[in-house]
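From the shared-data thread, chain only:
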Amino acid sequence: MKKISRRNFLLAAGVSAAALGLTACGGSSSSTAAPASSAAGAPAAAPGWKKGDTVTIHVPAKAGGGSDLYTRYLTAALGEVCPGVNFVVNNYDTGEVGMEACKNGDPDGLTLGMNHGGGIIQWLTGASNVSMKDDVKVIGVITLGGPQAIIANPDAPYKNFKEFADYLKANPGETVIGCSLGGTTQMIFVSLVDALTGNSEDALYVQCSSEADKLTQTASGAINIANCSLPNALQYQADGKLTIIGTIGPKMSTIDEMEKLMGIELNDSFKSGPEQGIDSATWDSAYYLFAPKDTPDEVCKAINEAVNKATDVASYQEGMKAMAGFYDKLDYDEVTAVFQAEWEFMDNLTADMGLKAR
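Structure, as tokens:
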């Protein structure tokens, strides 16, 4: 499977962990010094994990969802990259508790957390008290995100984004979009409608969070528009239960790249916004791995190196294929740049929507 080349990102290569001579995983269980707690004057410990270590990753979401699955594909691959290291995934019904668990963990490289751009939104809107920018330290990218199919009723009078834009302009306020109110999917649709018509208020936004509800309610006509994963969109399209009007996702999400990622053939209904002539109809949002904010940079860089090695493991690649998630090797400095760019985008977006509380 072809990975997305790093040249697709507006990033300059930083100093890699390998160039600094750091090791991602210690190779011997005889190492006794902890990475972040060596006594003064004692020899510095190797920054990576050693055999017998238990690494806990706190996931602020329930088991079985996208955040959980992405994390477990990563930990399965890390288990091969770092033999003898135990990786434990902790799920939380309450996202805030999961974020707090990482924030308050020991900064020794053994306590980690994950979250996507939705965590940025939650902080900016006041829904969370944990800042991914100031309370933790982002150290790796699990996935750069993936495209979502934009689905409509089976008999929708529009078959692509331009026809949908014309309908919105002719019928402002009549289209009902199902999304997670105040969350990432509402932000995606607000951005999409604004890109199509110049006025995000041309549609109505209602609460509809789970993918199962989005599929069934769009198919039944209870809502007009929603988003879903590409595999589900393909299945429902084949059964004639919905209309696909396009996809929205990272800028690299062309049909060609999506087909390479998933290993399947897609028809023209899956064209992305830019492929349909709407360049601003994209959504770049990554899933990040982070550590408590006082975790030493040497430890973070070593973990980043291990994450990059995990992208070469077959189980990880198959997981990204199943999730339709793009990925790449990004060093520690590049990860920081990707996160900072997303933070600034979300900051501006929440402000434009009147939702910014901080």
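Residues 148-276 form a domain with the D-Maltodextrin-Binding Protein; domain 2 fold (CATH 3.40.190.10).
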